[in-house]
Amino acid sequence: MVHVRIGINAWSYPSTINMHDAIKHAKSAGFELFEPVIDESDLNSFNSSDFSRKWSNVKEIAEGVGIGLYTIATGLYWRFNMILEDQFEKVSRVLETQAKAASIIGAKVLLVVPGVAVPELSYEKHIERAKATLSKLAKMAENYGVVIGVENVWNRMLASPLDMRMLLNELDPKVVGVYLDVGNTLPHSLPEHWIMTLKDRIVAMHAKDFLAEPNRCTFGIPLTGSVNWSNVKKLLNELGYGGPLTAEIPPYPGDPLKAAEDTASSLKRIFG
Asked: For residue 40, is pLDDT > 80?
């Protein structure tokens, strides 16, 4: 049986908790990995000593508590859309900032959102432009020794694993793969089909659940929604996937730490 390394994303903690405290709590909760996030302040400090100091400190804290740093995320691709040609320089700057931070902390995979759909372009043009942009970004990622993980998100494109496979077909599999978010596949598709279709192109995974009810659609911790985790585990074992499975869940309003602790418990029950 393949050992999946469970982790948690920095967004799973409220903004009132700094990244250093979140890393320490993640370790105490039982996570093996922590996924840090770059933001606009990192773009602004890219060429300064503050940038290197910040990310060297993140590495030091993680090593001190004994937790791994394998992936690095950002929400900036929602702001800078790779589908729009005039946004390429900004998108490129975001990726280089991720890659530089990753090179400092020893992370291997960059989470990348492959654009946000706009009504004035055809669906085919969306995929064409995303592919062209990713091809250019791949050269930069390769120079830094990291891999781009294209995430399936609710961006009104790439809603099926066949679309994602179409996007990746002509891109170097050693540099560009899939960052599969299990919960994001619902309600329009099934995570099982994404795993079956994309197979060894999956380089990293996000873990959260999704509950669809008549008057409520919510993301939540694993085992609280509609994802069939037994199927997911079975398919990952068959695939031989031994990479990261990183929780990306909202914190509880009444307690900043309990959701992370409950998520660790759920993931250990599923994959332990």
From this structure: yes
Cβ atoms of 113 and 149 within 8 Å: the answer is: no
What DSSP assignment string belongs to 26-62?
HHHHT-SEEE-EE-HHHHHTTTSHHHHHHHHHHHHHH
DSSP label at residue 80:
S
Distance, in Å, from the CA atom of 133 to the CA atom of 23, rounded to the nearest integer, reads 33
Query: According to the CATH classification, is domain 5-271 in 3.20.20.150?
Result: yes
**Predicted confidence band at 220 (pLDDT cuts at 50, 70, 90)?**
very high
Pairing of strands 109-112, 147-151: parallel
| pLDDT at 18 > cutoff 90 | yes
CA dihedral (189, 164, 203, 70) positive or negative: negative
Q: Which residue has the tokens 């599923």?
A: 270
Rounded CA-CA distance 236/126 in Å is 30
> How far is CA 225 from its chain centroid?
20
Q: Where are the domains of the chain?
A: 5-271
Helix, strand, coil shares, percent, the chain, to 5: 50, 20, 35
Residue 210 burial by CB count (10 A; 0-12/13-18/19+): exposed, middle or buried?
buried
Instruction: Specify the pLDDT at position 217.
Output: 79
